[in-house]
Amino acid sequence: MSDSSKPETPLRWAPWWVLASVALWPLTGPAEAVLSLGALAALTVLLVQRFRGGMALLSHEAWALTTVLFLAYWLPQLLSAPDAFNAPRAWREVLLDLRYLPFLWLVAMAVANERGRRLTFTGLALIAGFWLLDGLVQAATGWSLGGPATADRLSGVFGAENLKLGLVLASLAPFPLTAAAERFGVAGWMTVALALVVVVLLGGTRASWLTLGLVLLASGWLQFRARRVVVAMLLGSALAMAAVFTFSDTLQQRVERTTAALSGDQAGMDHALSGRLPIWRTAVDMALAHPVNGVGVRSFRDAYPVYAQPDDPWLADAEHGAGYHAHQIVLEVLSETGLIGAFLWLGGAALAWRAWRFASPAARLCARAPALALAVTVFPFNTHLAVYSTFWGGLVLLLFALYAGSLLSGEGGEPGADEA
Questions:
Q1: Residue 113 — φ and ψ, nearest 5°?
Q2: Is the dihedral of CA 162, 164, 168, 171 positive or negative?
Q3: pLDDT given for residue 258 in this prediction
Q4: Which of 245, 265, 321, 343 has a CA between 20 and 30 Å from the CA of residue 176?
Q5: Tens of pLDDT, residues 155-214
Q6: b/e map of 376-392 (b: 16 or more CB within 10 Å)?
Q7: 320 close to 278: Cβ distance less than 8 angstroms
């Protein structure tokens, strides 16, 4: 890569802004405010910098990939909105999500040099580690910074009304695991891994169990390239699971529910999936009825009564009403944005993979943590939160930008390249 494509004037405050937005995730309002202000700040800086002679804050390749990945996410919203079941809400999401583009540029700028990557990734590791420690305290005492454990699972700093601790920790797990391995070796990595196993298991979300399992297998192998580490991790995780299982009635119930899938009948499978089969069946019917551009982003709940079977249990549930979202990323994209959305998502995935394939080994090493976090978060053979919701969509987009900005920084992973 030529020197002209390298970022010349790194924004030294950008990593701090990114970290502030992540640290505030448990507080929805402040987190949204910081994100929006960051987007405005990024736009202002970019306008000023352009008048000074061009975009020197980000490599051309990182600029392009970050923008393309955003468009792969946003264009399906735009194209689904004209005939959406709830057109006002769909258009609101389309307009509101435009703020993510300048914020993603800011995130990519934050990791566009060695100093920024070190600060951002270490900061993410510390934030996740703090939430992990808080979860361990709640597991031991019943209390955390988010309040007492009033739910049937650990809630941590997110609180009993916002049960996302396990999912968030599982998705961010590559950052504390990588930081622990680099500083303390195998012992540090194993310690963090076992702590994650305990908290994510008690977090109670089975989607997070699979996500964390993928992270531990991939991280253990990539970090140490040794079968003994993977075997030790498996044995340690099994012991931790056995200990947690022994003392947690709720976990026992969830494991028993999961094993119901082995019965081989539809009722057992539906029980194991917490009643999601009717939701998935309805999502398929929506996709078949609206194959081009779907029923509209965030219109799933509005379309649900139209396509659900008369005996659908979610229609009779007075508390939850119709299914709010598809609980599966592939079905969400197909039902809400149709084949157009699926094509754009696959196009974005193909370009992200192409960038990884043609990147240098040093560049891949720079981007390994966000790449793994992104891969397991959108892993298609799992259940998911709504990817077009404010919180989870923001998390996925953040990982998009961290991946693109660190992989295509233009530095080739050379330490100290930004200090000249």
A1: -145, 165
A2: negative
A3: 58
A4: 245
A5: 999 998 888 999 999 999 999 999 999 999 988 998 999 999 989 988 878 889 899 999
A6: bbbeeebbbbbbbbbbb
A7: no
Cα–Cα dist 163/186, whole Å: 31
Rounded to whole angstroms, the Cα distance separating 104 from 69 reads 10
Rounded percentage of the chain residues whose pLDDT exceeds 70: 82
Alpha helices in 147-173 (DSSP H): 165-172
Rounded alpha-carbon distances, angstroms, from residue 384 to 36, 88, 299, 380: 25, 25, 17, 9
Least confident of 30-44, 141-155, 190-204, 217-231: 217-231
Q: How many helices (H) and strands (E) does the chain have?
A: 18, 2
Of 332, 328, 276, the residue nearest 299 (C-alpha)? 332
pLDDT tens track for 91-117: 999 999 999 999 999 999 999 999 999
Pull the structure tokens for residue 47.
Answer: 């306008």
Q: Would you call 17 helix, strand, or coil by DSSP? A: helix
Average pLDDT over residues 77-95: 95
Q: How far apart are the first and last CA of the chain?
A: 18
Whose structure tokens read 């508390």?
319
User: Considering just the CA atoms, what is the radius of gyration of the chain in Å?
Assistant: 22
Cα of 396 vs its chain's centroid, Å:
4
Say which residue the tokens 């140490």 belong to. Answer: 224
